[in-house]
Every structure is written in structure tokens, then in C-alpha cells.
Amino acid sequence: MDIKLPNLGEGADSGVVVSLFVKPGDRVEQDQPILEIENEKAVASIPATAAGVVEAIHVKPGDKVSVGQRLLTIGGQPGPGGGAEPAPTTPAPAVNEPTSIPAAAPAPPSVEPEVALPPVSGEPPPASPSIRRLARELGIDLRRLRGSERGGRVVMGDLRAYIQRLEKLVAKASATGDQARKPRLEPVDFAKWGPITVKPLSQLRQVIARRMGESWALVPRVTQFDEADVTGLLALRKQHVQAYEERGARLTLTGFIIKALAAVLHQHPVFNASLDATEENLVFKSYVNIGIAVDTDQGLLVPVLRDADKKSLLEISRDLEDLAARARDRNLALDEMKGGTFTISNQGGIGSAHFTPIVNLPEAAILGVGRGAIKPVWQADQFVPRNLLPLTLSYDHRLIDGGSAARFMVDLVQALQDFSPSLVQL
To answer: Would you say residue 175 has pLDDT above 60?
Structure first.
């Protein structure tokens, strides 16, 4: 039997083979990892769907593979649960057919490779009254159909196949139009002016490029700038950092920001919402899942810290360190990169101050955090040195107005400056 690439998750239909764990002649057990696939900013292990002996390997590291493509051929005596073709990862088309289509209807003829609309020819072919009535309701001219039954009789399967051809035609026309509208870079022969090195973009870099391009094209983005006085917050951290380390956690400024941000998102739920695909409905979420942008050797990864509003600062600190470490080691599961409601990008450890982060669709906003700096602040008739933290809030102007963004930022700054010591104590 063949082991094929299963469904990798929503919106993921391909990946690149990173490494193989088996070779021809090896015995594998059901659910044993056989190779790793890089896709959607993560590396996922693909398990064997049956037990047996590896007879052939059809891919190698670096190959791009799609869902349903053969990976291995397994032979020999199958173990428990083996010996049969793996169940398809998506239901068969018949399961989702409308109830009005009789179960005994013959299978539709195979869709032809071309999607051109069939021409009108002669008289309508023979068909039952129910088929004629349905065709009229759908606006389908039966003269464009070729019946699959004896004498060219049109049945339900023929109608279904024709509708599928129309869908492919529309999809192809839409894709062609999108390609025509997409700006293209002018080809340049860079080698004319000196030596060059060409390095293909990694799968991860291609995903980042595509998503950033989509966000820039779809989201009318506005960025709000502010600073928070974190002098007291840093003193609070210094007071408790040793106790957290004794509990196996690293107390960082990012942890404080996540804790404060989770509470502020409940005060301003639109910043934790998303616009649905129709762009006609706003989806409010009762959970707070914070995406954390992590800088790695391979590119930017955004693992998601779930239920941040329900966790203590100790739990947030532990989860934050674990996610960041596994992101850098490329050991994140695909699900750990999905489901975020708001994202933080903290560049303070690298340097720089304010920057304008791009909204991580389908979220509504993202917070950028820069490097804090000691600045003179006027207090009680004199200038005093205070540690000010630069904050930038980029948001989707389709959902959020400037006034709402300003109020959100004021509340976030206040939450950081008035952070309660009781939230830090163990």
C-alpha cells in the first residue's frame, strides 16, 4: 500500500520535505513518524498510517509535496490496523450531496481537463420532468449538456458535472484576472554589473512574503504611537525575578505586557475581534490568545499563547519561554501557530524604538514594543529620569477608528504604569 501526504490543516495543501526517518527495508509501525514536512511556518512529523516494511521511498529532502501525493510504499505483513488503503482525509463528494439528489443516481462523468463552456447544439436532449424543472430553476440550458445515459438522456449526475465545470470556469477566470491585476517586477539581469549569488526563498520565507503582502493589500492600516513609563514595572520585576527562576520561569517585560494586555482587550473587545470572509460581519471572541512574534534563524514565527487572560504571570512566563524556545528549534505543531486573536512584536531585546508592525490577518490589531530608554520627565516641578517604553499599535481601520485606538493605548499605558504587585507575587 502507499502512504500519502494527509491533510496538513486549514489552508495548507503542500509542504517541503525536511528529513526522512526511514529507508527501504526498514520496518515501521502504525503512527510511527516517517518524515518531516515544513509548511505554514512549522515543521510537522508525518506518521505511518499502517505497519509494514518500507519497499520504496518516493520523495527526498527538498522535494515539494502536495496533499494526496505518494510518500512511501509499504509492503510485507501489515500490523494491526494495516493492510488497507488509508482512509481519505476529506469526505467523499457523495457525503455532501444535497438530499434532493437520489442516492441511486449514477456517478457523474469525469470532468474534462478544459473548462470552456460547451456550445449550444440542436434540440434539448431527453430528460425526466424533474431534471428539466431543476435545470429551469438553476438557469441551465440543457442543450449545452451531453447526457451519459442511453440515447443521450440527461440524469442528475450530468447536471452536477456541468455545474462543476461552471465553477472551474469561474475560478479560472477569477485567477486570471487576479494575475493580470497583480503588479510584476521587471526582470533585471543583475549579473551585468558584477558577480551575484542566487538563493531560493525557503518555504517559510515564501509564506511570510505571501501573508505580509495580503495584509498590506487588504488592510487599511493606521499606527498609533505612545510611550509607557515602566520604571516601577522594572523595579517590580527585579524584586521577583529570583523567585520566578526558582520556580523554573523567566520573568520578562513581555510577560508583564501580555498580562496587562489581556485585561485591556476585555475592556476593548473590538481589538480582539475579526472581520469574517464576507466582510459584512464582525466576529467577537470570548477567548484571548496572544500571538508572540519570535525572531529565528529561518524567519519570523508567531506561536500562540492561549487563554492569556486566564493565566497567572507565572504560567504566562513559563509558556512564553517554552513557545519561544520551540519556535527557534522549529519544534512547533501547526495548531500552535493558529487561533491567535492579537499579536505582540517585541524588538526591545534587539534595539530600535518605534516601528510600524503589519497586522497579522485575520486579527484586527498588533502591538509593537521597542527598546526602553531613560528620558527626563517633568514631575513635581522638576525633571526626573524615567524609563520610557515605546509602544506602537497598528490596527485595521475598517473595524477600528482613531478615537478607539487612542483610548485603547491610554488604557494599556495606564495598566503598565499601575501594574498591581499582587499579580506578580507567588
So the answer is: no
